Amino acid sequence: MTYKFKRESESGLILVNIEIDYKYELKMILDTGATNTTVDSNALYLLGYDLKDSIGVVEIETANGIIETEIFEVNAFASLGMLHEKFQIQVYDFIAHGIFSEYNGLLGLDFFEGTKFCLDTRENLISLS
To answer: pTM (2 decimals)?
Structure first.
């Protein structure tokens, strides 16, 4: 399967659409340097999730140091023609930590676990097999 992706003109970020629970669409950044998929807690709240329903907390290392994120399990998480059911995501309050972005999070390598993928940055294509 091959999919065309968009790139942000100034930064070159790779942008992808994701879908949560077969009905909510968010715009995220594909981050091959991120081990785990992370969603802004504000976006998750607006989708109707109760932020008290996290299944745990984990510390992760970022470019700005160690932070704590909450773990949530969503019923379905899809992007680029792939679907994961009962997918665990990390949730972090972007706004409370001074992160203001038009994107709702990062699609990390955990989403691609067990999948061979190739990014063609000349043609803006991602191939999955």
So the answer is: 0.86
